[in-house]
Structures are given as structure tokens and as C-alpha cells.
Amino acid sequence: MTTGPQPLALHDDRLFSSDPLQRAIARRLYAQVATLPIVSPHGHTDPAWFAHNAPFANATELLLVPDHYVFRMLYSQGVPLDALGIPRADGSRAEVDPREAWRVFAECFHLFRGTPSSMWLNHVFHEVFGLRVRLDASTADLYFDHINDALRQPGFLPRALFERFRIEVIATTESPLDPLEHHATIRESGWQGRVITAYRPDAVIDPEHEQFPSALQQFGELTGEDVHRWDGYLRAHRQRRAYFADMGATSTDHGHPTAATANLSRAEAARLFDTVVRGNASAAQAELFRAQMLTEMAAMSVDDGLVMQLHPGCFRNHNLGVFERYGRDKGADIPLRTEYVRALKPLLDRFGNEPNFQLILFTLDESNYSRELAPLAGHYPSLLLGPAWWFHDAPEGMWRFREQTLASGGFYNTVGFNDDTRAFLSIPARHDVARRIDCAFLAKLVAEHRMDEDEAAEVAIDLAYRLPRKAYKLG
Amino acid sequence: MTTGPQPLALHDDRLFSSDPLQRAIARRLYAQVATLPIVSPHGHTDPAWFAHNAPFANATELLLVPDHYVFRMLYSQGVPLDALGIPRADGSRAEVDPREAWRVFAECFHLFRGTPSSMWLNHVFHEVFGLRVRLDASTADLYFDHINDALRQPGFLPRALFERFRIEVIATTESPLDPLEHHATIRESGWQGRVITAYRPDAVIDPEHEQFPSALQQFGELTGEDVHRWDGYLRAHRQRRAYFADMGATSTDHGHPTAATANLSRAEAARLFDTVVRGNASAAQAELFRAQMLTEMAAMSVDDGLVMQLHPGCFRNHNLGVFERYGRDKGADIPLRTEYVRALKPLLDRFGNEPNFQLILFTLDESNYSRELAPLAGHYPSLLLGPAWWFHDAPEGMWRFREQTLASGGFYNTVGFNDDTRAFLSIPARHDVARRIDCAFLAKLVAEHRMDEDEAAEVAIDLAYRLPRKAYKLG
Amino acid sequence: MTTGPQPLALHDDRLFSSDPLQRAIARRLYAQVATLPIVSPHGHTDPAWFAHNAPFANATELLLVPDHYVFRMLYSQGVPLDALGIPRADGSRAEVDPREAWRVFAECFHLFRGTPSSMWLNHVFHEVFGLRVRLDASTADLYFDHINDALRQPGFLPRALFERFRIEVIATTESPLDPLEHHATIRESGWQGRVITAYRPDAVIDPEHEQFPSALQQFGELTGEDVHRWDGYLRAHRQRRAYFADMGATSTDHGHPTAATANLSRAEAARLFDTVVRGNASAAQAELFRAQMLTEMAAMSVDDGLVMQLHPGCFRNHNLGVFERYGRDKGADIPLRTEYVRALKPLLDRFGNEPNFQLILFTLDESNYSRELAPLAGHYPSLLLGPAWWFHDAPEGMWRFREQTLASGGFYNTVGFNDDTRAFLSIPARHDVARRIDCAFLAKLVAEHRMDEDEAAEVAIDLAYRLPRKAYKLG
């Protein structure tokens, strides 16, 4: 074991190849993208932060408790969630001194060696907080005090950080039931930061969500539509989409268990919806309804121009004991094998060649990159590939994404990086990793004489900045 | 954006590692294989080219219109197929000036950055046509004129190119219904180029092909057999296989949706065939019939010695709108997840240990390389592995093929490279990429002290030349 | 072809990157683990070797006949199993001079170029036997004589090799029906070598094993329990597990076709067992029974602390002709696509959060590393990841394992290396390969500034020594 505090450094060449030729090229490419503004078209930051601009509470509440990447690893090695103060399903919380929770984290920080969490966190410690010793048991208190002191400074308020991070635009994600009051507050505040929303209707689309009936009820109250009949339900979606678009949204997002789509007749869809509304839908009918709704959402996108995102293939809340005690989103979501070719055909049969339609596909099943997704995106004008996502947004995962999608999809059917995070302070770190990996990947192509360096420089800027602006209509 | 024409170069070390040690070894290995004759045992060039030796029409008709790798990428980024003059299903064609189509292509050439198409095309531009500036909007006309001028020279006639490319033997692919007249013409012409055929019976085997009934009718007329009865149908296959073998064929090729094989009794197979012939086959019966026919083809191979190739796992003509307007083979074929272990068992139970039987397996599902295909080929004497195919014949795909098949399959259960192309001019480029990647892969093994360099040199020659000759019985 | 004997060398830097920076780091990391004792928690050596300490017979019987990695490759290239003297199912054996078999092997040794077998064998030749020329046709006799001479020396007796190899502990694998007499002999002999057993109950759990009825009969006789009734059957398992634990076992091992688990009520399970015992189980019922038994084994592990290992996803004895003539385990086992997320849920719903329960998961389907296994192990406290296994324990496979599990699982949810071999002499070679690959992998992380070298050094020692001792409770 190491003894005492060790220095913490962020090397200028991190994530570049150690081959001197590739490294030199990567440096030159990176120099052109390092300070470009951050375009964050998909994420889960809380708009209330930017609406109210209140200080963050402390290191534990800011960096540990909300980050399931972090606490799932600790849990996997036997740390009880209660020891970290993770809130329970019933709203209660173990009485844990945040400093004690931070110490547990610090003692376990070696578990993250080599993982993206370690890279992101060290970036935050070093760049945001100016720390210069490594986190371990011996520096836990130093960290906790130092971070908490910083959080009381005006420079660490949400809007100040937003500006310091050079965020050009950030999208949050809201349910159709969300009044978007925080977005309205931001807009009315006169602050210039661009915080937009995205339409995420899963809660009012998934018949198997435990809150579907009450969500539907609310959906009707909010829109004044008869949402228990098919036509009214669709009208309610159109109405809310329009409101979201007014509040800056340029995209919708759909987190379904599979990529299944359907293309039912109006009468069939209405009948299915009746079954769903009556709470009588079987698992197969629930799946069919979600599938049909993807196609309905696509139809609305053709009309209103919102870019559609599909994030399928996750078994949510897999751990029964954790779900019962702590509820949803506690680090127990596990990827599933996912099929796209047959699943998307009904939707693509209708809208695959629509000039005004863009569907961005994500996957948690990397075996699809070269087999299904790159070939699909390399043919259909309506399809683009989202970046390496969630479990795969590590350097290795990003590299595999490029290696496995380049041949059939090229660079220009991809959309740049999504940070997809609620860990606000890590956003610069995550975009920096993505830019470095793309530059390292391009440097290899240049060093192996597959592309000229001037071309690679253009691609690097496209991936970091131009493609996300274009794909998400943020220009 | 770059301004004005940029130089076009093919670096001597392209595709080799930038690590100096690996690069030096790769150079030495490559020097031994660079100028070996091309053995092309599987492809789709048109035998009429070599029979009639007529000049190619122009750059667009030669390089753009027939190459679905190229136009699918343009289409994916919103270029209408009509703007390229792609023929429609009804035989009509948008009136497009080939020069205008070429300009569209040139303006979009950046879309191919990093893809194999860019490498192949630049190789053709540089090596075949002697161009020394990059293709872009500013050089589109220069390219179009230069290439068209060249195509009028005798050195650019098909046979002259065949010889210039040092092609030792090339296989085309024909249906059993093809009279092979072009092959006969070549043979009678006295020209020494070795152009052989391969037996591709899908059209008379797949009950779900829209032209199956008429193809069967023709099959009967051509062979004089009663092909609507099981015995006659099988005799017709044997007869045509013998004729193909007479015309040089050493192999058959089978492009089925799955790798399913079956082992029905004679009576069961005859009953199934009756159902198929009456047009009453369900999807499951059609699949079973294709499965049974693979085993029947294997039985014939045991007798006549034709090497069998299986190319499964593609969803053909996935884009409904494109299929309806432009017909088959318009860049909308998409790979499917594919299973081999259970699928092949019926066939292998009968012929897996036959000394006179060789089945070469291909895949579009790379997850099978290490899991199913290399272990199968590393055990069964009748099985060999075809190279990285179609969507996977890029440098990265070739590298993954070697990395994932080496441990269980070794080098000697693989069969060298297939170019599998109708883009005749790109054949040297494609073989060159394959040889370079194999040398780069071997150089890594040598540099990491897993193999001596004299062994690697032998393997390099085996992969480039000896193994395809042996596997396809072309020696 | 090379002419005459070539030198055989093991380079000090083998398997390290040829990049000078990475290589230098790898060397330093490796220096810390190169001579650590071997912890071999899972394998298939014969305890009789260590009990009786008799000399091995000859090169062919020691290195060729028992190693299906080796003879499957020869068989795949047309060498008959009889030519190697592989025993047949009926107990007979072709009369083959071991020297002749060895010559066949030597002539075919080039087939192994680049494979792990070649690396392991060359390590054995060089390090164990001191050979300094490469094996080929010209050196076959020299090898055969040299090895046979060595095997007659006291230094090549099993116990002497065990000590020379610095084996701290080795686990063998036995059926519940095994009396463990060899383990008893070892214990009584006073020899200090630690040879422990592991509980592998497949033969008395799998209703589809052809010897299940007789195995069950024996199981009852051995334990005195009424094993044809559910309660007695479970008691018999508990009794044998306790005996195995007495004989040093710290783990159980389960080689099922799939990872399916079940969670039936006691009454349902008892009814299912009755069906199984009567020999009436359908394929689905047999699968359900195996699934239920995994959960029962987990329940027993919670009580007795034996670590549970699950090795699913293999189609055993795929080659019908070879199975009929030569029986089981003749190199014809082929990996299958495997699912874990839904399959393990019943077991994990019961025991996934049990502090006293450890389940080590293996796979032959690498597509699961990043998709299912690393996310599962990176969340559940009860789950750990076994290393790259069987067809995947080559340098490339080990590298993929680390690359694809690091992000979600980290290093500390893995358990170090398993040699999983019956090829006793290759054990040091296999552990050396694993240590070198882990050091090379860590060196890349250090060279790319993702980890400091002092951290990497700690991880290297953890992976080579501390984690297997901890995961398998061998400390």
C-alpha cells in the first residue's frame, strides 16, 4: 500500500497513444478542439440549479450521493448504501455524517483505478477544485473540507460554473408532466446561459410503469385533452411537444426496454390503447403499445421537427432487494442484448426516407455497432448514431465505437458526444475525454497514412462541435 | 474547409503500425507478398467484360453507379439516388449528366474519410489512373475528364487491366440458369486470362425469392429434368454443377438468411419439396427447405469435389421505399445476428468428418468469430473460415478477424482473402489492404516475441497466396 | 520452408508492447509479480499424480494425448485421432508408436503459430526441459528422446515439479461420487504441497447426462441418504459438500449449458425432482431442474461458505462421429451464445445481496463482457468475474477481457487468473502469460496517464496473487 498523500496530476498527453508519432499528431489535433465550447444535447442536470443558482451542499451530496456510477462500485464491494446516505424508497435516509460517508468513499477510491469514474473525478478534483494530492484515506478530510469551502464561494455557484465550463448549450430531460417552471425561471431571469429541455414521455407511454395510470390522469389535467381516448392522447402529446419546443427543446428521448416499433392501423392502435387504458394490457400488448408509440412519435417529429432519440436495451432496477428498499435508479440497471434490424423496420418503412426526420440510435449492446447500427446509419438518411453510451462511455468504449462504426457508417453519420450525466461538475471532464479519444483515434489514422492531417483536423472539429449542433438542430 | 486541390499520395507504409519496430518488420514481410499474383476465388465481376473486352463507359458508370458501398453512404447523407443516376426497378433512370453525378460524388467525398471506400478509391485514382491531387469539389471535372480519357486507351480495356493487376485467377458467380456464354467466349478466344465461374443456386433454392417459380421452370427447360419432382430437381443440380465444373468452377456459393441446415429423410424432403413447388410453403417450411438444400449441396460436394461456401445472415433490401422504387441490391442489405453451432449440426453430423468435403464459413456477425466460428473451424476437418466479409472487410474488421480467430482457429484454418467485389478496378487495392493488414498483424506478433520472423514470413505468403489456392482447389 | 533446426528462445519482453515507453513500464511491473507463488484455484490436474508421485510415461502421453487444445487443431487439419493414439470410447486404442505420434505432431507444429498452445508448449520445452531448438519434423526425435530422458529424472516427478513451479495451492475438480482417496493419500503422506479439491456436482444434477440414473444411485449409496426424494437428495449434497470442505475445498463448480437459475417453491421443486428421478423430464424440465439446482447450491453456499463458480454456455461433444467413436471431451465442445441478465435474476433475487455469498461468473461468449457481466459484477456484492476462459485464455482474449470489463467492473471485481488445465507442465506458462498481459495492459494505462505507476504496481500484485486468494478464500 502507498503511504501518505501522493501527488495528483493531469498529464497534458493523457489518453493519447504513447507512440511518439501518434502522440504528436494527437496533440496538434487536440489543440484545435480543446477549448471549443461545450455542446451538451443530452443530459440529466437539474434545471433548478440554474434557475435558483443556490450553492451546492457539500462534497458528499454533490459528488457521491447522486452518482450511481460511483456508489454502485462501492456497493459491489460490500459497502452498504446506508453507509453512504443513499436515500431510501420511503423517503427516509440513514443518519450518516456526510464526512463519514466521504471517508468511506476515500478509503475505497482504489476500486475505481482505470475506470472512467476515476478519470472524471480526478479531473473535477484537479481542475474544478485545484486539488493536487490524490484522494485516499489519508486525504479524505482534507478533500472534504477543501471542497466544502470552495462550494461556498460565488465562483462555484451553478451559473458561474456553467460559464466557466464554456457550455454553449445544455439540454435537460423532462417528463411531459413537468411544468418546466425552472426553464421558465431561467428564461425570465435574464441570465444568458442556454438551458433547454427535451421531451421524455416514457412515464405516460409505458403501461408497465407503476405510475402509468396516475401519470395519464395528470397528463389529461395538464393538457385539457381526453387522454383516455386515442385521439385525445395523441393530441395531448402534440400539445406538450409544442410547449417543450417553445421552451427550447429540439429533441425527444425514448428509453424503451427494446427497439421494437410497430405500424398499426389507426383502428388497431385505438383498440390497443383502450386495452392499455383499462389496465388490461398483457406484457406483449404493453410492448406492442410502446412499439406503436415510437412510430407515433416519429410521425409527430416529421411534423414538428423534433429530433428523436432512442435509448433501448436496459433491464431497469434488476436488484430486487435494492429496488424494494431504495427504489429506482440505484445503480442496478443492466444492459440487455438488443436487436434493431427487424425491430426498427415498421418505423423505417414509414419514415426511413423522410427528409425532415432524424432518429438518433443508441445502444448498450456493442455487438450491434458493426453488425446492425453502422450498416443502418450508413444507408438510411433518417438515421444517425449516438455515441458510446452509459456503460460504454469510457476511453475503451469510445474507441470501440469508432473502430466498429467507421467502416460502414463513417464519421458523418455520428453525432458527436453526449455526456448524459447528472454529475454537473464532471461535464468538462467527460467532453474532454471524448475529444481526446477522437483525436487519438484520428491520430492513428493519420500516422498509418489512412487520412491526411488536414482532413483529420476538420473531422476533429466536426465531432467536437459541428456535428452535435447540426444533428440536434442547435446551430 | 481546405482550399483548392490537395496532393494525393499513397504512402509506402500505409496500414502498418507507426511503432518503428513493428513497421520495420511489416515492411520486410510485405516485401515478400506485395507483388505475388492475385488469387480471387470469390467475386462478382462481369464475365462479359473479359469476353468482349469493350472499353468502360465513363468514371460515373464505372466507379459510382455499380458500387453500393459508395452510393449508400451518399444516400445516407441525403443525396437522392436519382441524382446519381442509379437505375430504377422499372428499368427507367433519371436523366442525369454523368458529369453532374460525378460532381455530387466529389463534393461528398469527405464522407468517406477513414472508410475502406476512401482507401480503395484513392488507390484506384493514384495507381490505376495516375492522379496526384485529391478528389473534391474543385477537382471533380479534372477527375472526370482524366478518367474518361484514360478509359479510351487500350491499356484500360478489361483484359489489359486484368493482366496489369497480375490476376492469376478470378472467379465470377453465376446462377444455375446462366448459360455461361461469356465464360465460353473467353475460353474460345485464346486469351490466357483465367476467369472461372462459381455455382450460386439461391434463385432456384429459395422459395421466398419472388422469381422462384419462373426460375424453377427455366431450370427444368435448361436441364431437361422434371425439376418439379424431388429426384429430378436434385439431378438438375448435379447436371448444372457438372457443367459449371467443366467451365472451371471449383466452388459453390450459398447466400441464405441463416446458417440453418437440416437432415431430413428422403421421403420427408420429397414431401417438403412438393409443398414448396405448389407455392404453399410457410415461412418455416421455406426455411427448412433452404436448410435441407444446404445439406443436399454438401452431399453433392462430397461427390463432385466442389468447395462449398456459406454466406448467411443478411436482411436483404431492408428499405421498403428504396426497394419499391429502385429494386434489389441498392445498399439496403443489413446484417443480422447469426447462429452457427446448432444451425450447422445436421449438416456436420452427416459430412463434418468427410475427407473430401470443404465448407468455408463467412459471417456478418463478428460476435461469432471467437465464440462459434474459430472453435468450429479449429475442430472440424471439413470447416474453414472465410475472411472478414462485406461490412467487415475494412482494416479494422480484418484485424478483428485475425485477433478473434487466431487463438482457436490458428492461421491455417483460414483461406486468405476474398475481394467479393464487382468493382473490378479496386481488386488490387483490396488485396493490397488485406496483405498489408496481415503483415501488420504478423509484425505485431513478431515484435511481441510470439513468433519468429521467418515463421511470420511463411505465414504471410500462405495467407496471400498458398491458402486460397489450396482451399479453393485452384493450384 | 525453413531448413533444419532453428533456435528456440523465450524473449524476456515477450507479450509486452513494442512501444519503448510501455515496454519499460511493463518490465518494471512484471518484475514485481514474475516470481510470486502460483495460486491455481480452478483446474483439472489429476490428484493421483501428487498422491503417488510416479514418473510421467513419455512425451506423447504427457503433452499430446491429454491436451484437447493440441489434438483438436491437428484433427481440424486432417490428422486422424487414431494417428495420435487418442483413446476410443470403447476403451480400445489404435496401436500407435508414441514416437510416431510425436513425429506427426512435430510435422504439424506450424499449425499452432500465434496460438496460445504454441506459447505454452514452447515455454514447457524451453523452461521445463531446457530445449533450445524449435520443434519441427527435423527435431521430432531429438525432442522425444530428450523429454523422455528427463521424465525419468527425480526432478521431473510430479511433486518435484509442483515445488519447482512454486505452486502455493492448486485445486483439482471432483465429482460428489469421488471418494477423494488421492487427496487423503496426499494429506497422509506428510508432503507439504497444498492440493485441494472442488465440488463439481454436474453428474448428479444434470438429468440429461447419460449416466445420471447410475450416478444418482451411487450418490445414495455413498451418502446413505434417500437421494430419490427431494429432501434426501439435498441432504446428500450438503453431506458431500461438507466432506469436500474437509478435504480442503473452498469452492464448487457448475458447468451448465446455460446460466438459467430458478426459484421454485419447495413443493414445486420436489415435484420436479420426482419427474426427474422417474426419468420423465422433458428438455425444458431438465433445464428447469438444473436452474433450480443452481439456486439450491447457492443456498448451501450461504450456509457452508463454499465459493460458487458458474461455467455456462458450451455445446458439449458437438461432433457426432467423434463422440460415437471416441466419446466425451475430444475437442468438440463449442461455445454458445449465453444470456445472464434474465437467467441469473431468480438466484440473485434470493441471494444477490447476501454478505456471505460469492458467485464467480465465467463466459465463453465475449459479447457479454461489457454488456452483461461487468455491469452485473460492478453492482452486485455477491458477484465476481472469472477470467478469460478456455477458448479465450489467449493473450488477445485476456486483453479483451480487461478492455471490456474495466469500465463497469474495475479490476477489483475480478478474481485473477484460472489456468483451468489438466496440462500440468503448462501451468507456469499459463500464469506467466496472464501476468505478462496484465502488466502490459496496466503499462498502457500508465503510459497513457490514466493511472500512476505505483497504483499499477499494486494492481499487478493484486491480480497475480491477492485477488485469487481472497476470492477463493485461500488466504
UniProtKB/TrEMBL annotation, chains A, B, C:
Assigned EC number: 5.3.1.12
Family statement drawn from the similarity comment of this UniProt entry: Belongs to the metallo-dependent hydrolases superfamily. Uronate isomerase family.
Record GO biological process: D-galacturonate catabolic process; D-glucuronate catabolic process
Organism: Dyella jiangningensis
Top EC class of this enzyme: isomerase
UniProt GO molecular function: glucuronate isomerase activity
Catalytic activity: D-glucuronate = D-fructuronate; aldehydo-D-galacturonate = keto-D-tagaturonate
Protein name as annotated: Uronate isomerase
Cited PANTHER family: URONATE ISOMERASE (PTHR30068:SF4)
UniProt entry keywords in alphabetical sequence: Isomerase
Pfam families: UxaC (PF02614)
Pathway(s) the chain acts in: Carbohydrate metabolism; pentose and glucuronate interconversion
Gene: uxaC
Record InterPro entries: Metal_Hydrolase, Uronate_isomerase
